[in-house]
Design goal:
about 90 residues, mainly alpha, Monooxygenase, elongated
């Protein structure tokens, strides 16, 4: 019973990490389509990137590869949003 509960929690956690990362893709699509970052907070997305970077490092230190991979994927996609905000907010 304990093993099946542990497996269920691990499955949900891994799925949640993947879903967390994928949730940035609609924002990326919107930015690429409109080429406008109005209404998006650069400070907020920089903060998300910092949190995800330290989450990745935490996973690395504790050999939690599911968490580490989820944070890396999330950092990459959130990093894309951050890059696009900068690109469209400060372009001439």
């Amino acid at each position: 019973m304990i093993e099946s509960a542990k497996f269920f929690v691990e499955l949900c956690f891994g799925s949640g990490m993947f879903i967390n990362a994928v949730l940035f893709t609609p924002q990326i699509a919107r930015l690429l389509k409109t080429k406008n970052s109005k209404g998006l907070s650069l400070i907020t997305f920089i903060g998300f990137n910092i949190i995800q970077l330290f989450g990745f490092l935490h996973g690395y230190i504790h050999n939690d590869y599911i968490f580490m991979l989820g944070m890396l994927l999330s950092l990459m996609l959130c990093g894309c949003v951050t890059f696009l905000i900068i690109l469209y907010k400060f372009k001439p």
